Amino acid sequence: MSGSEDSVLSIESTVEETGERLDRFLARHLAPISRSRLQAIIAAGGVSIDGEVVTDQRTKVKGEAAFSVHVAPPEPAEPAGEDMALDVVYEDDDLIVIDKPAGLVVHPGAGHATGTLVNALIAHCGDSLSGIGGVRRPGIVHRLDKNTSGLLVVAKHDLAHLKLSEQFAAHGRDGKLSRAYTAVVWGRPAPVKGRVEAPIGRSKLSRTKMAVVRPGLGRAAATKYAVLETFTGVARDDLSVRAVAKTGGPGVSSEPMNVASRLTLELETGRTHQIRVHMAHIGHPLLGDDVYGSGFKTSARYLTESSRDELVALNRQALHAHGLGFEHPRTRETMTFESDLPEDMQRLIRALSEQSA
Q1: Element (H, E) at 151
Q2: Would you call 237 exposed, middle or buried from its count of C-beta atoms within 10 A (0-12, 13-18, 19+)?
Q3: 88-170 is a CATH 3.40.50.1220 domain
Q4: Calpha distance 40→330 (Å, rounded)
Q5: Residues catalogued as catalytic
Q6: What pLDDT sits at residue 50?
Q7: Which of 159, 224, 245, 298 could form a disulfide with 266 if both were Cys (CB 3.0 to 4.6 A apart)?
Q8: Phi, psi at residue 163, to the nearest 5°?
Q9: 180-356, superfamily in CATH?
Q10: What pTM was computed for the model?
Q11: pLDDT tens sequence across 63-111
Q12: How much is the pLDDT for 226?
C-alpha cells in the first residue's frame, strides 16, 4: 500500500457493541489513529456503514455491521529525510526490521531534531511510509532508548501499522509477539530466575525519569529475567593492594563476590525504561546506567582495570534487544529475528569473564 494512495480499513461490529458512538468505536478498533483524526475523517465523508456514508460522529453502532474507513494520503513528513546508513535485517513491502546501534535516537524530539532513525527511514523508504499519524512518516510501533541497541520493526503503511500495534498492545498475551534482551547488571539477582511485577510512572523527583510507583499511580509492568552468567570480583578498599588481596594479606578481604551478572530478559509489558527501572528496583541496576544506577558507581572498584576500562568505553547502559518475534501483518507468517551483541558489550563481558577466571 503506497503512501500516495488512500488506505481503506475494514471493521465489523458485534451485537455487544450496539449503542456505542461511532467515533469511539472506530478509535478503539483503529488505534493508533487518534480519535480527533477519525472525527475529521467522519466529517469529510470517509466512513461508510454497510455501504452508506455517515458524517455524524455521534452515530450509534447498531448490531452487526460492516464499516469502511478511507484514510486520505498523508501530508508531507515534518521530519526531513537524511541519507544515513541503516543495518537492515529484513525488508519487504509491508515492514522493515532494523538493528539499531546505541546512540541513535528513534524519533525527532527536543534536542534531536535531525539525525534520528525516522530521518533515515524517510530517506530509505521514500513514499512507502505509514501516514497513520496524519503525516507521511515511518510507522514507529515501538521504541528503544537512545543508548539501547538492538532490533526494531517499523511499519511501511497504515494496515501494517495497525496490525503490528495490536500485537505490541497485547504484549505477547496472544502468542504473536516476543521481545528478548541481554543486559549486564550489578550483583547477582536472587532468585536466578524471576519475574518483577511493579507499576511504573513518572518520578516525583524528576520528570525525565521513570520510577516504580504505588498501584493506581502508574501503569502495570512486568519483566521476566534469568541469570546466564555471574562474574566475580574481590572486595577491597584499595585497588592498589590487588597483589596482597590474592594472598589474603592482613586487612584485605579475598572472599570472591558476585560483582555482576549477564541476564536475558523478556518484556510482558512495554513501559518507558522498563528494564532499567525494574532492575534498579530490585537492587541490580544495569552497568553503565547513569540515570538509574548512579548509586552503584563505587562498585567499579571491584572490577579489574581491564573491566573498568571497558565499562568506561561502553559509555551507556549495558542493554541490547537481541530477539524479536511477531506475526507478519499481511501473510500472518511467524517472523523471528536474532541480533548478535554489539562489540562494546562483547568486550565488557569478555573482560568480566577474564577477571572471574
Answers
A1: strand 149-155
A2: exposed
A3: no
A4: 27
A5: 145
A6: 92
A7: 224
A8: -65, -40
A9: Pseudouridine synthase (3.30.2350.10)
A10: 0.74
A11: 899 999 988 765 554 677 788 889 999 999 999 999 999 999 987 766 6
A12: 98
